[in-house]
Structure formats: structure tokens, C-alpha cells
Design brief:
Layout (H helix, E strand, L loop, with lengths): L2 E4 L5 H10 L1 E3 L9 H7 L5 E4 L7 H5 L7 E4 L9 H6 L3 E3 L6 H16 L2 H10 L18 E5 L3 H12 L3 E5 L6 H4 L3 E3 L2 H5 L4 E4 L13 H4 L6 E5 L8 H9 L3 E6 L10 H4 L4 E3 L8 H21 L9
Parallel strand pairs: 1-2, 1-3, 3-4, 4-5, 6-7, 6-9, 7-8, 9-10, 10-11, 11-12
Bound molecules: glyoxylic acid.
Length: about 325
């Protein structure tokens, strides 16, 4: 039986599935392991089921025992792993695409609604009993007829587009390449970021974090947005330069933000905390029972597939 280190606690049924198929090292207390602890605990193991909270940088990967052949990441994003460093050591890295598309898109839409309709202020006022209905109370931005700019029209971006279209939004997107018309569903393609941002009444950041996308939303690019735009991020905090976004909120260049992900999570820039216009969630994108179960099962299946066939269809560093 292959020995697998599972760095974070999974839903019970998934841990049971893993333990049927492998000799598992579980993390019952869901402790956040340091990089050196992951290295230490992986001694004698054949693979590691990692989570987005595990920073598997080149230094860590280079210190893993030779027996480790696979890092099966429990996420669709794999910005936490230096996939090239893993490749150099002959370690396969896999992810969990598809199964979390719907749940993450739901949160993407919640961010758009929450930011546009001033949900953060509304919730606070309802809790404080500090409100009365009036014709001009907490007036927000209506989605119908607004232009939604999607940065990264992959699976999640396409699903957000589909729901947003049904809410009457007009869809624009920027991607490395133009999609076919079936996937585009009438959305307008922009071959550069500036062009997309200039028509984004609402922006939804859906692209993976990579060397190319780090700090893509920054002091300079925020200026391309229309005045009073809404910025939402359901992808990764690394794509946004927080200081620039907070400063844009301060001077009302940006009307509101809807964020589920942050640089250096679980910490987040305190500037967001005091902003009325910040609708913020604690990285809930894939957090439903169905989805977390499907993700963990897929992460386990990826390991199985790899050890039984020598390959895995969800490999990201081939
Ligand atoms: C969640 O953020 C994921 O990448 O799966």
C-alpha cells in the first residue's frame, strides 16, 4: 500500500476513502504544518495530498524525500506549488478542476451582488437596528444592463458569465485566447487588459495566480476602469495590489469591492476592514459539502490513477 501524507483534515467520508486505498497520515487537529514539518512528516511517504495553505516552494520541494512522487493539490488553483521545481525532481503535481466550478461561480456571483447592492452596510445596519426604510436608503447599483468584465474566462469565468447573463448583465472578457462561439455565448472578447477594464462596470477576477497575473490589478490598471466600477475577486489574492485598490476605494474611483481571496490569507489588508464598500468573505469559493467531497475524492483518485497507470489526467506540470 502506498503511503500518503494528507496535510489538512478532510471531510470524514473522504478520509475514510483515502484510508481504504492508502496508508494515510492524517491531520486530526487540522494543524497548519510549517514547511519543515511537511518535509519531516513526508519521510517514508510516496505522495502528499496538499492544500492551498501549504507553501510548496522550490526550497521545500528540493528537501522532500526521494520517495515522494506526487503532490495532489486539493484545489483547482496550484499557485501554492512551484510546479517547475517539482518537475525537475520528477514529482507530478495534480489539481481538482471541474468539480468546484459551480460552487465557486456561486460565490463569484455573491461577491458581485454583495458589492453592488451594499450588502456589507445592509447587514451591519440590520444587526444594529440602525435603519428605517426610505426611498433613498442604501441605494446600490443594479446589475441589469451593467457590463461585467471577466478576467480569465476559464470554467469558473464561463459559469459566472452564464449566471450574470441571466441577471441581465452584458458580458465582456479577456483571456489569453478567444473562445469559440459556443463557449463565448455572445460575450465580447478583448485581446488586452486595458480594453477589458475600460468597459468593466463590474470586474470579476477569475484567472489563476501565476507569474503573469501577479498584481495585474494595480495602481496603473485600476485607472483604466470606468469611474465608480466595482471590483470582485474569486480567484487569488496575489492578482490584486491591495494598497492600490483600497486607495481607489478611498477616492471613489472604485465604488465597492467584493473579495473572497487575499494576499497572505488568512490575514487580510486592514484597509478593507474599515471600508463600508468592502463586501468580504473568508475564501468560501468551493465550500459546500458536495464540492469539498468531490474535490477530496478527486484528489485521492488522482493519486490512485497516478500510481496505477504512471500518469494522471489532472497533471499540471507535464
Ligand atoms: C480554491 O480556491 C481552489 O483553487 O480550489
Amino acid at each position: 500500500m502506498k503511503k500518503i501524507l494528507i496535510t489538512r483534515r478532510l471531510l470524514k467520508a473522504c478520509e475514510e476513502k483515502a484510508s481504504k486505498n492508502f496508508e494515510t497520515h492524517l491531520n486530526d487537529n487540522d494543524e497548519l504544518y510549517s514547511q519543515s514539518k511537511v518535509i519531516e512528516m513526508s519521510k517514508g511517504c510516496d505522495g502528499i495530498l496538499t492544500s492551498l495553505t501549504d507553501k510548496m516552494d522550490a526550497e521545500t520541494i528540493n528537501k522532500l524525500p526521494d520517495s515522494i512522487k506526487i503532490l495532489s493539490n486539493f484545489a483547482v488553483g496550484f499557485g501554492n506549488i512551484d510546479i517547475e521545481a517539482a518537475k525537475k525532481r520528477g514529482i507530478v503535481v495534480t489539481n481538482t478542476p471541474d468539480v468546484l466550478t459551480d460552487a465557486t461561480a456561486e460565490i463569484g456571483i455573491l461577491l458581485i451582488l454583495g458589492a453592488c447592492r451594499r450588502a456589507a452596510e445592509g447587514i451591519q445596519s440590520a444587526k444594529d437596528s440602525s435603519w428605517k426604510w426610505s426611498a433613498d436608503y442604501l441605494i446600490g447599483k443594479q446589475l441589469t444592463g451593467s457590463r461585467l468584465g471577466i478576467l480569465g474566462m476559464g470554467r469558473i469565468g464561463q459559469k459566472i458569465a452564464k449566471i450574470a447573463r441571466s441577471l441581465g448583465m452584458i458580458i465582456h472578457y479577456h483571456n489569453r485566447s478567444k473562445l469559440n462561439s459556443e463557449k463565448e455565448q455572445g460575450a465580447t472578447y478583448h485581446d488586452n487588459l486595458k480594453s477589458l477594464l475600460s468597459v468593466s462596470d463590474v470586474l470579476s477576477v477569475c484567472c489563476p495566480a501565476s507569474k503573469e497575473t501577479i498584481n495585474l490589478i494595480n495602481k496603473e490598471t485600476i485607472e483604466y476602469l470606468p469611474k465608480g466600477a466595482v471590483v470582485t475577486n474569486v480567484a487569488r489574492g496575489d492578482i490584486v495590489e491591495d494598497e492600490a485598490l483600497i486607495e481607489a476605494l478611498d477616492r471613489r474611483k472604485v465604488y465597492a469591492v467584493g473579495l473572497d481571496v487575499y494576499k497572505g490569507e488568512p490575514k487580510l489588508n486592514s484597509g478593507y476592514l474599515k471600508h463600508k464598500g468592502a463586501f468580504i468573505l473568508p475564501h468560501l469559493g468551493s465550500a459546500t459539502k458536495e464540492t469539498r467531497t468531490a474535490m477530496a475524492n478527486l484528489a485521492i483518485d488522482n493519486i490512485e490513477e497516478f500510481f496505477s497507470t504512471g500518469k494522471c489526467r489532472n497533471t499540471v506540470n507535464e
